[in-house]
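Mods, move this if it's the wrong board.
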Amino acid sequence: MPRVAGLIPPVITPLTADGKVDRAAVLRVMERLVSAGVDGVFVMGSSGEGPSLSDRQRRDVATAYVEASGGRVPVYVGALDPSPERAATTVDMVISIGADAVVLGGPYYFTGAGPEHVRAHVLQSLGGTDVPAIVYNLPQATGNPFTPDVVRHLAADARIVAIKDSCGVEADSLALQAAAAGAGLDFLQGAEALLATSVLHGAAGIIPGAANIVPRLCRRLFDAAASGDVDVALALQADLVVACEAIYRGGHWLSALKATASEFGLCGPATSGGLPPLERGDAVVVEDVVRVAAEDAA
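Not the wrong board. Structure tokens:
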């Protein structure tokens, strides 16, 4: 399998008002990202509402993105489930639709189970399949972190090719990055505040939710950091912080992301899982989003 690297947006799941996957919107999202030069897409992550989608929605959105990509960029699909039994069902779906890899989070709900349980969750979820897998560290949501030792142990399995980290704590993230590098795994940073830092330290790629809205800004940030241009990378990181303040302002961050995507004409604002809708009546917010869009396209 080719390296998992570059800019890989964790794409939104466009939904109609009655909860169906909006395939036309998926195509709009994909075309916009491909034109911005992304290196792949991550479907059904946190930004894609993966854990709260129904089985039908999961299959529909994953299939829609695979079809919309048409082989132009890799499609990685999340299996963010609380148990290996549930995750294994998603893994089977990922294989059946022809996605390039599965992304496995840690087990959740039953927290504090320990590192061996986290490791077992991944391996049992994969079962006897040969699908490439990326592990996804998000301890603030799962309560069960991927520690450096777990990462090193999992790397012994040839199916594990990369780790995405979104813990958001710089010291912890850099420790995971060092463990991944030592074990020969690609490291992918998902915490938007740490993108430049991680890439300047050798991270293979970035997976920021804001790339749904400002993919070109994220592209430039990654390229500057990957080439070692520290001053430009840090300036673009500061620009991204400003962009994120506009994108995520008001209410739940995921509802805000969907509302921003709606303002851009990418999809409707509907969310899954009972997330509160966001009323974006503040003209300052709308103006900020429009400004960010204009700057991103420049």
